[in-house]
Structures are given as structure tokens and as C-alpha cells.
Amino acid sequence: IRQLRLFFRPNTYKIRETRKLFSKLACLRALVIRQSLVIRLSSSPFRLHSNLIREIPKNVGKLIHLRYLNLSELGIERLPKTLCELYNLQKLDIRRCRNLKELPAGIGKLKNMRSLLNGETYSLKYMPVGISKLTSLRTLDKFVVGGGIDGSNTCRLESLKNLQLLRECGIEGLGNVSHLDEAERLQLYNQQNLLRLRLEFGRVVDGEDEARRRKKEKDEQLLKTLQPPLSVEKLGIILYGGNIFPKWLTSLTNLRNLYLRSCVKCEHLPPLGKLPLEKLELRNLKSVKRVGNEFLGTEESSEDGPSSSSSSPSVIAFPKLKSLIIGAMEELEEWNYRITRKENISIMPRLSSLEVRSCNKLKALPDYLLQTTTLQDLTIWKCPILENRYREGKGEDWHKISHIPHIKWWPLP
Fold first, then answer.
1. Which terminus of the chain has a smaller tally of CB atoms within 10 A, N or C?
2. How far is residue 347's CA from residue 338's CA, in Å, rounded to a whole number?
3. Domains, the chain, with CATH or none
4. Helices and strands, number each (H, E), in the chain
5. Of 19-23, 205-209, 353-357, 364-368, which gets the smallest average pLDDT?
6. What integer is the mean pLDDT of 27-32?
7. Is omega for the bond preceding 366 within 30 degrees of 0, making it cis?
8. Which pLDDT belongs to residue 114?
9. How far, in Å, CA of 316 to CA of 344, rounded?
10. CA distance 58 to 54
11. Can you tell me the distance from the alpha carbon of 55 to that of 58, in angstroms, rounded to the nearest whole number?
12. Are 245 and 266 a contacting pair, CB within 8 Å?
């Protein structure tokens, strides 16, 4: 047997029997251990946690030919130390192991590891030093900054510079960076193979103004220092506490997918219109009250300048954008572009999907977007003013969206 998938129902997992099975599978290349999370409706939902598999047999380390190991969604708190003897292991999937508290200290022995899929491991608070030795890694879902008992067994942020083959990386806990020079030594802009990057800062600071001010300044300096390489195609910035975004954000000429989430102190959107974005997601930017021409990132035409005689636009903002999501922007009231006749400009000419969610104060959608002939899908979700304005047959501006093939509302009309 080269591949084995074990599927256990609740309370049917027996570690002794699994241990015996492993002893007979020395040639195994791929192993998947999954557990059903289905329980009876009469059962207490709090019992589900106790039914999860909490331990993996130590003799898993005897499966020395293993290339792929999937332990995702189990209830394990720790991985056996013997797992570090799987020298041929290339892919380890422990996603959604929500009880997992630590990775084995000897993980650096897994020199052939290419993918460490450890996303949504919410109890995992630090990374062992050995992570920096996994120089074959292409994917690292989650790297946690700081943590550990005394810091001596914790992999530092700057150690990521050893992983030059990384193509995808998520960095969490950036609020734990103690000194800016640690981020400077990382030299993130030199990771020329990096394509997908997620930067997650700390939670919003409550309480004294001085503490909030320190977080703002620290986050702004840190994000400025963490400039990605030009190779990046997907970028996420989460829980950023600064007021402004760094200038490097508008210079990522290969960026296709950008999401900004819970950057609650930012009052203005960055000028993104010149980027080759195909998907843009803006969520929970609570301090943004207005979106206007500054978002387009285009220079305004001079009042006295000659107007273009050509019928084609001289400037295209967001030339490749297909999907735009705006959500939970509680203070957003106005979204409009003031374009004069002399400004020969096209805005989002390829937009096919627009979602606006939980923007309670937003008064209207920009006519420029609604007139885009490529727009196929429009979702308006919990936006009471927009719902009244564009309601089918009743709203004053229903005629502006009636040509769109697919329109979704919530709540339903």
C-alpha cells in the first residue's frame, strides 16, 4: 500500500489499533487521517470537542517513506516528536487543528518539506527555531511572531530570510515585533520567489490615547519596512493600526489580488488605480467616510490643458479589476468620482462583480460603475439606504441597475 486514508467516526478511534496498523505500512507514501464531525441533533454541541482525535501514535515516525501527511481538523494538541524522523516528508497539512499548541522542536530535520499548511491553528502561538532550517519550503501558511516561554526557543521574524524559495507566506502577530531592526534584517523585498503574502498585525488597542498613539506609529513604521518584492501577486494586510499606507503599496506592478481588513484607523483609501488588480477587497475600514478621486490614483487634468480629441480614454483607472468587495465600512457616506469633461478617463472598465455589504450610511453607488457594460453581478447586503434607493420598481434609481443580469439583496425584498 502506497496511499492510505483513515476515516473515523466519533468515539471509534483506537490509538492502539492505529499503532499496529502503522507497523505494517513501512512503504506508505501518503497518509490521511480524518474524523467525522457529524453528531446527533440531540447531543450537546460542547461534546464535539471531546470526540476529536487528540493523539497520533508515536510510531508514525517509522513511516520513513512518507511524502504527504494530512492531519487537518483533528483535536491534537501536540505532534509526536517522532514525526521529525520523516525525512522524506514534503507536505504536512495540519490546518484547522484548533487545539494545536506547538510544533515539535526538531521540525528543522524535515529538510525536504515544501508545504507546511498550518492555517487556522488558533492555539499555535509561536514557531520553533527549526522553522528557519526548512530551506525547501514553498508554502508556510502561518508564521507567528514572538510567543514561547522565554523567547529562547522561538524563531525570530528575521529568520524567514533563510527561506528563499518561499512562494506563499502568512505572517501573524506583527504587533509582537519588539524592535524595528528585526524587520529590517528580514529584507522581505529580497524574497524574489514570493507570490502570496499576508501581513497580520495585533488587535486594536483600547484604553489610553498614548497606547493607541504608540501602536499607530509602530505599525506605520513596521509596514513601511516590510516592503514586499515586486514579484508579489496577492497581498493581504489585516489589523493594521496606522492611519496611512506606505508608498510601496502603489508600486507593486504584479499585484493581482489585494485585501485590506480591519485597518480601522485608516481614514483614506490608498491610490490604487494604476495597479493591475483583478480582485480588490476592502472590509472593516471603519474610519473611511468618503471615497473619491484620490482612490483612482490618477493625476487630475489641468483646467487650462487641452482636451483629448480621441474617443478612447487617455487614462484608465483599475484597468483589469473584475471583482470589488466593500464591506463593514460603517462610516462610509459618499462614494463618487468628480470627473470633468476634459478628463478623458475610464474607471474599472472590466468590472464584472460588485459586492457592497453592511455599509449603513452609504448614500449611493457611483454612476460610473453602474454604467459599466461588463457588470454582471451586483450584491447589496444590509445597506438600508441603498436598498431604498435601488429597490426594483420602487427605488428612485432602479433604472440605473435594472440592466445588470444578476442582482442579489439581503434582506430579501
1. C
2. 12
3. 1-115 (3.80.10.10), 322-413 (no CATH)
4. 6, 19
5. 205-209
6. 96
7. no
8. 99
9. 9
10. 13
11. 9
12. yes
